[in-house]
Write a structure and sequence with these properties.
It is globular, with a radius of gyration of 15 Å. The chain is α/β, with parallel strands linked by helices and 158 residues long. The chain has a single domain (2-157), classed as Alpha-Beta Complex (Protein-Tyrosine Phosphatase, Chain A), CATH 3.90.190. Helix 3 packs across helix 5 (144-157). The strands form 2 sheets. It has a 5-stranded parallel sheet. It has helices spanning 8-18, 40-46, 86-98, 114-125, 144-157; strands at 2-7, 31-37, 61-65, 73-76, 79-82, 103-108, 132-133. A hairpin with a 2-residue loop joins strand 4 (73-76) and strand 5 (79-82).
Amino acid sequence: MKLWCFSRKNAREFYREKMGWYYREDIPEDTAVISIAGTPEIQEKYLKDNEEHWFEEGPNVLNLNFDDVAEDEFEYNGFMFYGLTMADARRAVEFIVRNQDKNFYVNCRAGKSRSQAFIQFILDCFPDRENELNPENPPCTPNIDVLTKLKRIYLYEH
């Protein structure tokens, strides 16, 4: 099963240009997508970007908005950054458990930290999965706070 991680730019190319997925209904039944974007204020005022999610949320699509920080809240240059909440970590774990037998495609802005935490979580907590990793973006530096929250929820509730 595929367990692929992408940057935002590479996800767009893959979803739209390579796979022809423009709407949630275009995504095959054996596939789950996790899209991670920053919080709206940080996108607009700090990054000066608008990271919209590619697909409407549904049974095979999870959209999350949190910043790439290693704590719940972090102030920098007058901006408040917000990490993954426990409520969203719980939603994410439930989503992954429900879809554990599917191909996973996970994206965030750079494809190196937040999305990699989700990849590492699946690798660690579902060891019986045979995973094909994205050769262009192998596991590297997961956000430890995100990974810890996902594992904590999974270990205590499953």
